[in-house]
Amino acid sequence: MPAARFLRDYWQQHPLLIRRAFPDFVSPIAADDLGGLACEEMALSRLVVHDRARDHWTTRSGPFTEQDFATLPTADWTLLVQDVDKWDADVAALLDAFDFLPAWRIDDVMVSYAVDGGSVGAHVDQYDVFLLQGIGRRRWRISTDPQAPQAVRDDVELKLLRCFEATHEWLLEPGDMLYLPPGVPHHGIAEGECLTLSVGMRAPSRAELIVDHAEFVAERLAETDRYGDAGMAPAQRAGEIDGAVIDRLAGLLGVPDRRGPDGLAAWFVGFITRYRSAQWVAPRPRPLTAGALESRLARGASLVRNPWSRCAWTAEGRGALLGIGGASHRCSRALAERLCAAPEIAAAEVLALAAEERELVRALVNAGHYGLAGGRRSTR
């Protein structure tokens, strides 16, 4: 298949099984050599062991010793070593076959050795990968169902799929290769001893790009280039970050003024309430229950804001997003303004709040942003 056709019809779109992609293929690295590399201090290696009876997975990171390998079970484990192309020139030479791709897109060649039943479980990668069978045989099961669930298990260190049902299944032998675009659920299981070479692509997330680009831009800005609000109108409501502020921020940062949970206002209300010297408020050692808070308030204890806890709020729909100490909470505009306006609030005011707003107050108390002061002592 011409490279142009592959890129047009399959790249980042559909999986492709390529039988005899490398005819008469001989693996450029042996299992023993891979094991030796996994014992090197600078090599990135992992051992994944599956207890099939309990469906329990364990993961260990290298470097390993010969004793580590000697104590492994006879089945159901896999050794993975990243960046083998940086250590072995013969493995690196495989990348010549992928020169139809931009060199900057290729990340590394990871090599995995597995005994019978060895696997890393059903999972999803968020990058393109070419899975070349080097030694032995591995059975690959994949799902091309666009509605396939991708929720992961919370009892495993690996990001394994909670549910996986294959739509296709193939047994790969030396020289066979499977291409998988990002987001395709897959599960490879060794049938006997096998070695697989994975050519993975570099695919930074949008979040990674935004953060790194922002740092790149920030390094080049002058210390005097700051937020300013010359000519602003007098403040109307205590603690409010109004629309004019957001408009100025949008111009300063050169980004759209988006509203909602991922907009500028939602970010800024958290950012501006973090204390500039990186001081963090300590939470209560023993959280107050709802009953305990009600009892303290009933005895007249007032709500007192921690002096390290900055607060501000911004309108969000008919309600408000309250920022305090870098965290944000949804509440009514009236409560947000009241909390920002007064460092101390009488017990009667708190008791008059709706149940969900008293629960927010309790969360703020337990987080350390507010304390309780005064009130009658309990007779019990």
Structural class: alpha+beta
- Please provide the ordered H/E string of secondary-structure elements: HEHEEHEHHEEEEEHHHHEEEEHEHHE
Number of helices: 12
Q: What's the CATH class of the largest domain, please?
A: Mainly Beta
CATH superfamily of the largest domain: Cupin
Largest sheet: 9 strands, antiparallel
When the domains are counted, the total is 2
Mean pLDDT across every amino acid position: 93
- Which radius of gyration do the C-alpha atoms yield? 29 Å
Q: State the helicity in percent bands.
A: 25-40%
CATH architecture of the largest domain: Sandwich
Strand content: 25-35%
Query: What would the CATH topology of the largest domain be?
Result: Jelly Rolls
- The number of E-state strands comes to 15
Low-confidence segments: none
Which descriptor suits the 3D outline? elongated
N- to C-terminal distance: 84 Å
Summarize the structure in words.
It comes from Dokdonella koreensis DS-123. One of its GO terms (molecular function) is metal ion binding. The chain is α+β, with helices and mostly antiparallel strands and 380 residues long. 25% of the residues lie in helices and 25% in strands. It has 2 domains: 199 residues, Jelly Rolls, CATH 2.60.120.650; 145 residues, Malonyl-Coenzyme A Acyl Carrier Protein, domain 2. Strands 1, 2, 3, 4, 5, 6, 7, 8 and 9 form a 9-stranded antiparallel β-sheet that branches. The longest helix is centred in the middle third of the chain and has 13 residues.
